């Protein structure tokens, strides 16, 4: 039995069917047949791979619309045998007919397989999305300066008052939520600066807001541990690191653990190297507040108060309730788990077709610790919404489920 086959605790409700690309007219279908091929083409365009690799990427792009899953060649990565298991029941199935979450996670895993990411040689550990990640950061420099300055000020205020400010914590939860809108798999870093949104107007677009309940859960403590399951690098990571520096240096948390992806996936998802790159990027700037923010971050990493950890679970097609025991035991030591972003939210719900009014806590009943999800909606998966809100949304914004304009802060405790 490997570590991904432990006996796990399920949601409290019968499980509905998974989202599938074969459902005509859905965003899921659009993603498999259009967005994913586009991403494969972008990988070709933005890297300098030899023709053979590019041909294989082209082949993958062309198979998505109507073709079948191709097997994974043994690339000697740690997760190769896990993937053989995940794929066992999907042999001879079309991309459109396998669960969407598996289709997406496997697509990104195949890109690494094709580009020789795990093999020694020129492309070893070459992040095929690197250019997008770097540009994403550079494009949001004004928002970065604004945010870092703000956090430094809030930390000064907290120190003067000798107690951490709950309203600053709420503001940082909002930043962390809306930072998630800047997702490079939906919008290329080159399109426009998506980080210059107005937080104030976005407050009205939060469909469930448990941020106050989160602040009730957290008080100043020399023992609190907070775990954050991270999502994107770039501007979202900056927002998350603002939250991290504030939690640690205001006294809300004694330790923060960041859970990162072990390899590139979902275009902009953050890895440990992205946290270091971001810290160095901030340190290299000339703005004094940004510099002191980056020093703070560095200090927190070096002192061991900020722990960076990765696990192949985060790049697997598994539902959150299939979390490996070791990781679940880690979470049991935490006071709060913060789960970021759309893809992690889909994992929380198993990417299943829940009725959108289903009680969120009845689904996410399997975690040993209070958990808050910060997610802007970018896929047809949701729970915990009021029926009257659904009726209203259907009239005011028919694309509300996928356009990234709406968010939730949902706490289970
Ligand atoms: O970065 P995030 O918020 O996890 O978004 C990635 C998600 O967004 C999408 O690109 C849009 O649905 C999905 O394919 C994926 O779930």
Give me the CATH superfamily of the largest domain: Uncharacterised protein PF01937, DUF89, domain 3
Give every kind of bound small molecule, once each: 6-O-phosphono-beta-D-fructofuranose
CATH architecture of the largest domain: 3-Layer(aba) Sandwich
Specify the helix fraction band.
Answer: 40-55%
- The beta-strand count equals 7
Q: What is the CATH domain class of the largest domain?
A: Alpha Beta
Poorly predicted runs are: 183-197
- Provide a count of the helices: 16
Q: Kindly report the average pLDDT value.
A: 92
- Main sheet overview: 7 strands, mixed
Proportion of β residues? Answer: 5-15%
**Judging from the principal axes of the Cα atoms, what is the shape?**
globular
Strand/helix succession:
HHHHHHHHEHEHEHHEHEHHEHE
Radius of gyration: 21 Å
Short description:
This protein has 413 residues and is α/β, with parallel strands linked by helices. The chain is built from 16 helices and 7 strands. It comes from Okeanomitos corallinicola TIOX110.
How do the strands and helices of this protein lay out in sequence?
Layout: H1 27-46, H2 51-63, H3 80-88, H4 100-114, H5 130-138, H6 141-161, H7 166-179, H8 199-202, E1 206-209, H9 211-217, E2 225-229, H10 235-250, E3 255-260, H11 272-284, H12 288-302, E4 306-310, H13 325-332, E5 336-340, H14 341-348, H15 360-363, E6 371-376, H16 387-396, E7 407-412
Parallel strand pairs: 1-7, 2-3, 2-5, 3-4, 5-6
Antiparallel strand pairs: 6-7
